[in-house]
Write a structure and sequence with these properties.
mainly alpha, 434 Repressor (Amino-terminal Domain), 2 domains, 9 helices
């Protein structure tokens, strides 16, 4: 369960317990509209709200601990974003820039695409075929027209910029 599912999970627990929304709201010392907004996901509940709702429903301590950890994680994330907003996003960007400037090797895992040298022309055509490109558009995107591997090579060379801070190579183009 994640924070996006928290409200609907609380509703499912309430419904499974057989309690009406008005009764749970009264027992949790909150308005019915607040409980409805929490269950619909339009309002993120606080840790105290989750605790009160679960106590009102009568949930066991083991299940309560799981829901409380999700609520704490959501509250921590919200607090972090409020801090970024108050200090200014430019400070966070400066922190990320400092980390990036110290980076000597960057590895990226993309489970939805086959990496560079393993791309066959057939694979690249299948991937680009999903974009509904015409044969003429595919041919124009190739730096080596007519070559059987032109599409594959084109994709590999376009993915790595010669001025990339990760490759640190400005004099030559590198394909991974």
């Amino acid at each position: 369960m994640n924070k996006a599912e928290l409200g609907s999970a609380l509703r499912a627990l309430r419904q499974a317990s057989g309690w009406e929304a008005k009764t749970v709201a009264r027992r949790a010392a909150m308005s019915g509209s607040k409980l409805s907004k929490i269950e619909n996901g339009s309002v993120m509940p606080s840790v105290v709200d989750v605790d009160q709702i679960l106590t009102a429903i009568g949930i066991s301590e083991e299940i309560k601990a799981e829901y409380m950890s999700v609520a704490r994680a959501a509250a921590t994330e919200a607090t972090a974003w409020r801090l970024y907003r108050r200090l200014g996003y430019h400070r966070k960007q400066q922190q990320i820039q400092a980390i990036e400037s110290r980076t000597t090797l960057l590895r990226l895992f993309q489970p939805s695409l086959v990496p560079g040298l393993l791309q066959t022309p057939e694979y690249v055509q299948a991937v680009l075929g999903r974009k509904n490109l015409t044969a003429d558009q595919l041919a124009r995107s190739s730096p080596f027209p007519g070559s059987p591997v032109s599409i594959s090579v084109s994709c590999r060379f376009r993915c790595v910029r010669p001025t990339s801070p990760v490759t640190r190579s400005r004099s030559r183009m590198t394909a991974w």
